[in-house]
Inverse folding.
């Protein structure tokens, strides 16, 4: 069954630590996205990638980094520069060019220790 | 810029109707609608790509008024399964994949 897998489901970060959230898709989608969700604020775009080896900053990229070395994988690193990382992180993917439905993973909840 | 959704929350009894609005200060070329149940991933409902277009998903339908820069989602004869938070995402023209999502409207349907 095709889909998007995010891991881990829960993650705890210590002060000054970088953590990496995994996102893998087997839908053969070209585009992938990372969103941050805080209560009452909807989904805010962190980074997105249209093709392998290329990605663009979204609206709140500061303190985050990504890579897109393989079509199926788009990991997100939350760096120590991100001072308020506690949130629900969602990965999504879509196929093709232009407006296509986005398919979401089940999310990773990140908390500060 | 983030679209504005209204109302923020609505409580319905089974069988009642509701309307959720999504407005943008910029020209709209497409509108996506998603529903998210508590603790779960958002699920795609529909995309509207042309001004005036209307679509439906079971008894949930949507319209897109390009001139008013607004889309509306209609929940008709609501069911308990309609409970969740509804998000609109507005997209620019062309090949840009970037969507801007509204803050969401929480719908609670009670028996």
């Amino acid at each position: 069954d095709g889909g998007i897998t995010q891991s881990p489901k829960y993650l705890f970060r210590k002060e000054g630590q970088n953590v990496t959230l995994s996102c893998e898709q087997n839908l053969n989608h070209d585009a992938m996205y990372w969103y941050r969700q805080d209560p009452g604020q909807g989904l805010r775009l962190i980074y997105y990638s249209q093709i392998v080896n290329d990605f663009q900053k979204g609206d709140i990229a500061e303190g985050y980094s990504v890579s897109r070395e393989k079509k199926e994988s788009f990991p997100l690193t939350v760096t120590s520069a991100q001072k308020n990382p506690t949130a629900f992180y969602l990965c999504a993917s879509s196929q093709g060019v232009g407006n296509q439905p986005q398919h979401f993973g089940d999310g990773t909840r990140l908390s500060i220790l | 810029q983030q679209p504005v959704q209204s109302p923020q929350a609505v409580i319905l009894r089974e069988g009642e109707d509701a309307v959720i609005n999504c407005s943008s200060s910029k020209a709209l070329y497409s509108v996506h609608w998603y529903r998210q149940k508590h603790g779960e991933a958002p699920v795609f409902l529909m995309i509207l790509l042309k001004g005036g277009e209307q679509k439906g998903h079971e008894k949930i339908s949507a319209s897109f008024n390009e001139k008013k820069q607004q889309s509306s989602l209609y929940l008709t004869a609501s069911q308990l399964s309609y409970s969740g938070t509804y998000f609109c995402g507005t997209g620019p023209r062309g090949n840009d994949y970037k969507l801007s999502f509204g803050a969401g409207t929480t719908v609670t349907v009670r028996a």
